[in-house]
Design brief:
Layout: H1 4-20, H2 45-64, E1 74-81, E2 86-93, E3 98-105, E4 111-114, E5 138-148, E6 151-164, E7 167-181, E8 190-193, H3 207-213, E9 221-226, E10 240-248, E11 256-264, E12 273-275, E13 278-281, E14 284-286, E15 295-298, E16 305-307, H4 309-316, E17 323-324, E18 333-336, E19 343-346, E20 351-354, H5 356-359, E21 360-363, E22 368-371, E23 373-375, E24 386-388, H6 390-393, E25 397-401, E26 406-412, H7 414-417, E27 436-438
Parallel strand pairs: 3-8, 4-7, 7-27, 15-24, 16-23
Antiparallel strand pairs: 1-2, 1-10, 2-3, 2-6, 4-8, 5-6, 6-7, 9-10, 9-25, 11-26, 12-15, 13-14, 13-19, 16-24, 17-18, 18-22, 19-20, 21-22, 25-26
The structure holds 2-acetamido-2-deoxy-beta-D-glucopyranose (7 copies).
């Protein structure tokens, strides 16, 4: 059922997320190449340029390094917070490593975590970064400040060893923030931007992009499978539940069926932006805007779907009894809960169905529900008209591909679907055994010499492992 307090909290979270999920690119691709890669449209000049650059860098790694270039793949278990509001994973920073729970956000490109001196918006129950406790800390002596719609995170820009899912970047820059507004709900104490460097507020190479560009991955892809808890079985969902998985360097083929449909990014890689080409609701095709208003940022850091207000009007017009929300629900629409809303979205390939469960964001009284499509502010996310968040992403397996820069979707497998709504302990923070370690390049991520090291095994961060694998260098 529902309670009004919960509804407001949820509404607040959604607003915050809509606001914060500002930055965020990502990519996917995978090992699915043998399975049926769909026919691609002709490559653009940009595609070829990106391919050429990646090829050059991969070769530089291959032949410029010492004896071996170890390509790897890694997996990080995700936690689902507050019935699909936030999906977070775990990373480790410093020597010895400290574990942080971080929002995985393809809608931004900076990494930041709470600083030990954070005095605003951080929970002191959660991990924070203390420069004095890490032997590999470096002060980049620049302020860091990221603004996400109505949210903000600010502090200093540092660099240190950052590890995740078996990968390590030994001088990854990150914001150590002393002030955050609107984002952190315990136990989360940071955010990992999975978008492209071109939209990084710090201008520094994102963790994932350093790994991809240096050829650290077996395949140049990141894969997401996220779970659904909202309104399943009357919702006995706990605040934290298993959230699915995030992979780098490979795609877990047991989580999807059929082929992955890749679509090229609309513009120069920044946000992970695709054209939204077709949307149907209750069997009717809604006419969509063209040009930049049709651009959709695929954003794991947003829980709902944001779109241009005029489009939302056309969408909700297909649901008898719907009306624009007022008060706290300004920007949202209400509709009769007894309507099963069937909706599909296409980005140029197949039309992907969104389950009626996900369309129904919440119920506010016995007969009235609120839809998951809200009016986003124009001009956010690089001018994208649409923000495609969890409401859509829970329905597909998603791939964020580095090269060629594209986003792919596939149908979820029975295995993946069977994880929805299953109550269980949230995963503990792990970084896995560090198999591959690289050094960040300054500026443009041009090639550098990289020495790959295989590190000691260090399982759970909570157990602690004093590794500092890696090390590299020029
Ligand atoms: C912090 O931890 C204390 C003791 O475990 C707990 O009572 C409190 O609710 C926690 N605060 C937050 C914000 O999680
Ligand atoms: C980092 O550098 C800035 C600017 O030089 C300075 O204000 C700050 O105190 C330094 N922080 C640490 C932890 O060294
Ligand atoms: C792939 O997903 C399945 C189903 O969750 C899981 O059992 C398996 O361990 C995963 N494989 C890898 C390599 O992560
Ligand atoms: C929605 O889809 C379900 C299942 O396919 C179907 O039974 C129902 O009639 C559809 N409702 C509308 C309004 O199209
Ligand atoms: C939904 O409920 C309203 C009353 O709350 C009723 O008028 C309407 O006919 C119902 N629609 C369906 C499809 O059951
Ligand atoms: C439910 O809320 C809607 C929107 O606030 C309102 O119009 C409607 O009268 C309410 N219905 C009931 C049964 O309280
Ligand atoms: C990482 O180290 C390399 C090599 O020492 C250096 O060129 C680069 O600027 C460093 N990057 C950061 C973010 O510290």
């Amino acid at each position: 059922m529902f309670s009004s307090t919960l509804v407001i909290f949820s509404s607040l979270l959604c607003h915050l997320q809509a606001a914060f999920a500002v930055p965020g690119p990502s990519l996917i691709s995978g090992q699915s190449i043998t399975l049926s890669r769909r026919q691609r449209t002709a490559r653009t000049v940009e595609d070829w340029a990106a391919w050429a650059k990646n090829e050059r860098e991969a070769l530089a790694v291959k032949y410029g390094g010492s004896s071996l270039s170890k390509r790897s793949q890694g997996m990080n278990l995700i936690t689902n917070q507050n019935s699909d509001d936030i999906y977070f994973g775990s990373i480790a920073i410093g020597t010895p490593p400290t574990a942080f729970h971080v929002i995985l956000d393809t809608g931004s490109a900076d990494l930041w975590v709470a600083d030990a001196n954070c005095d605003t918006g951080c929970s002191h129950n959660d991990t924070s970064y203390n420069p004095a406790s890490s032997s590999t800390f470096q002060n980049l002596s620049r302020p860091f400040s990221a603004t996400y719609g109505s949210g903000r995170a600010a502090g200093d820009l540092f660099s240190d060893v950052v590890q995740m899912a078996g990968f390590s970047v030994n001088n990854q820059s990150f914001g150590s923030v002393t002030e955050t507004h609107g984002f952190l709900f315990s136990p989360v104490s940071g955010l990992l931007g999975l978008g492209w460097q071109s939209i990084a507020v710090s201008k520094e190479p994102p963790f994932w992009q350093t790994l991809a560009s240096k050829g650290a991955w077996s395949e140049p892809v990141m894969g997401f499978h996220i779970t659904r808890y909202v309104f399943i079985d009357d919702s006995n969902a706990q605040f934290l539940e298993p959230g699915g998985s995030f992979t780098m360097g490979f795609l877990n083929s047991s989580l999807y069926t059929g082929s992955i449909d890749y679509q090229d990014l609309v513009s120069t890689p920044g946000f992970w932006t695709l054209p939204l080409t077709k949307l149907t609701i209750q069997g009717t095709t809604v006419s969509l805007p063209s040009g930049s208003a049709s651009r959709a940022a695929i954003d794991t850091g947003t829980s709902l779907i944001g779109g241009p207000a005029s489009m939302l009007q056309n969408i909700y017009a297909q649901i008898p009894g719907s009306q624009p929300g007022t008060g706290d629900w300004q920007g949202y629409w209400t509709y009769p809960c007894n309507t099963t809303v069937n909706l599909t979205i296409s980005f140029g390939g197949p039309s992907w169905p969104v389950s009626p469960t996900d369309f129904q964001m919440t119920q506010i009284n016995s007969s009235t529900c609120v839809g998951a499509f809200f009016a986003s502010k124009p001009g956010i996310k690089g001018g994208a008209g649409w923000l495609i968040g969890g409401t859509f992403l829970k329905n597909v397996f998603s791939v964020f591909r580095y090269s060629p820069p594209s986003v792919g979707f596939a149908a979820l497998s029975e295995d993946a679907l069977s994880m929805n709504g299953v109550d269980g302990p949230p995963p503990t923070a792990t970084i896995g055994s560090i198999a591959t370690s690289v050094t960040a390049s300054p500026g443009n991520l041009t090639s550098g010499r990289v020495v790959w090291t295989s590190g000691s095994v260090c399982g759970s961060l909570l157990v602690g492992c004093a590794v500092a694998v890696g090390v590299l260098l020029l």
